[in-house]
Design goal:
Layout lengths: L4 H6 L12 H16 L5 E5 L5 H5 L5 E6 L2 H7 L7 E4 L12 E7 L8 H11 E12 L6 H4 L17 H10 L2 E8 L13 H18 L11 E8 L10
Parallel strand pairs: 1-2, 1-4, 2-3, 4-5
Antiparallel strand pairs: 5-7, 6-7
């Protein structure tokens, strides 16, 4: 399956609202908060897999922003959302940027779609400047409640999720690319229902409350296993130099 208009209308984006204060809006706001907290204001920021541009668009007031996506349709749609962001159509596995070009790179729920995610992470290590920040999110194979969902777990529902891996493997890729994890945490339990008979709305309130509090307050407190996604904030070590992937 290609990442085209059909994909955006039948998968993740079909199940969220773009309205202000929706779950999708709060998620993007949380990632924007991470970028501002850990990144250097005014530096170059790249979002890899910008989708429809809603996250990188929130960061135009704090960074010199760039957005990249493999899909021409998504990049075209993003032009109506962003105002000053430079857009590029290219693969995450072969980034068209110079070494040490960025102070912050965000790659939110993209690596699981890539045939060679380790290569993409090496590329991120190459384009990050010394002390630059990586913010990554991907489905969490070690999630505490994942066994309750079985084959219905959210990470298995998208056929383009071809590179699902355990957090330890993602962290190994990140460290091999010259980045040191600063924060490794989760996003909470929102893939309801987890148990039968109890209405999903009640389960979302019960199971999802901690993730909601974290997203709204920006205070990171959920352990790595306490969520459907694992999130990593990592810093490029000053001494590491990564060559462009062949």
């Amino acid at each position: 399956m290609s990442f085209d208009e059909k994909y955006f209308s039948t998968h993740t984006y079909a199940n969220v609202s773009f309205a202000k204060y929706s779950q999708y809006w709060w998620s993007n706001r949380f990632f924007a908060t991470l970028a501002r907290r850990y990144g250097r204001a005014g530096s170059r920021l790249l979002e890899i897999g910008l989708g429809l541009g809603h996250l990188v668009g929130q960061l135009e007031d704090s960074f010199e922003t760039y957005g990249l996506d493999l899909n021409h349709w998504a990049v075209a749609q993003s032009k109506s959302v962003v105002k000053r962001t430079s857009l590029e159509t290219a693969s995450a596995q072969d980034l068209p940027y110079a070494d040490a070009a960025f102070g912050v790179v965000i790659i939110k729920h993209i690596v699981e779609h890539l045939p060679d995610p380790a290569r993409a992470i090496r590329e991120i290590g190459r384009i990050l400047e010394p002390d630059g920040i990586l913010i990554l999110a991907t489905p969490n194979l070690d999630g505490l409640l994942k066994p309750l969902k079985g084959e219905n777990w959210i990470g298995y529902q998208d056929p383009t999720h071809i590179s699902l891996k355990h957090p330890a493997e993602w962290l190994s890729f990140i460290e091999d690319a010259g980045m040191k994890p600063l924060k490794v945490f989760a996003d909470g339990f929102w893939n309801v229902p987890y148990v039968p008979l109890i209405p999903a709305s009640i389960q979302k309130l019960f199971f999802g409350s901690l993730g909601g509090i974290q997203a709204i307050t920006g205070f990171i407190f959920l352990p790595m296993r306490w969520g459907e996604s694992v999130l990593v904030v990592a810093r490029k070590t000053a001494a590491h130099k990564t060559k462009k992937t062949d």
